[in-house]
């Protein structure tokens, strides 16, 4: 049997995590602006359902990777507050994961939107 109270409490914690991410992480605010712009462009240019799926996949992947990266950074900072070379590499690799998704999102957006922009 599903405990709905427990499930809704879990959603509450997840939404608190989103709030914390946007409030405290500068890169998350950059992702928020980029997400808003790409969604607005999607409506403006009337992109297809398939193009919306690509945009949704990349936007959600960038957000998820940013959340994971921020969580890893916070955990690393809590585990060792000194300049630890190994922890620094872990944090850099987590940031690289976000960069991979963000660059992929940028290329996908260019493939979807550049032909529409250039045809005007």
Helix content: over 70%
Query: Which band does the percent of strand residues land in?
Result: under 5%
- Assembly annotation: single chain
Look at the structure and give the CATH class: Mainly Alpha
Number of domains: 1
Low-confidence stretches: none
Q: In one word, what is the shape?
A: globular
Our measurement of the CA-to-CA distance between the termini, rounded to an integer number of angstroms, reads 56 Å
Here the CATH topology equals Helix Hairpins
Summed up, what is this model?
This protein has 120 residues and is mainly alpha-helical. It has a single domain (4-118), classed as Helix Hairpins, CATH 1.10.287.3610.
Report what the structure shows.
GO terms for molecular function: kinase activity. InterPro entries: DAGK, DAGK_sf, UDPK. The chain has 120 residues and is mainly alpha-helical. The chain has a single domain, classed as Helix Hairpins (Orthogonal Bundle), CATH 1.10.287.3610. The chain has helices at residues 4-24, 26-45, 49-79, 85-118. The model has no long low-confidence stretch (mean pLDDT 96).
Key terms:
single chain; lipid metabolism; 4 helices; 88% helix; 120 residues; mainly alpha; Diacylglycerol kinase family protein; globular; membrane; kinase; DAGK_sf
């Amino acid at each position: 049997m599903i405990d709905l109270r427990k499930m809704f409490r879990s959603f509450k914690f997840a939404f608190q995590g989103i709030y914390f991410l946007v409030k405290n992480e500068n890169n998350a605010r950059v992702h928020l602006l980029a997400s808003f712009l790409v969604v607005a462009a999607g409506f403006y240019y009337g992109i297809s359902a398939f193009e919306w799926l690509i945009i949704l996949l990349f936007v959600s992947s960038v957000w998820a990777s940013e959340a994971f990266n921020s969580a890893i950074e916070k955990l690393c900072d809590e585990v060792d507050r000194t300049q630890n070379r190994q922890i620094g590499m872990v944090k850099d690799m987590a940031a690289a994961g976000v960069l991979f998704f963000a660059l992929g999102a940028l290329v996908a957006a260019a493939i979807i939107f550049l032909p529409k922009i250039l045809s005007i």
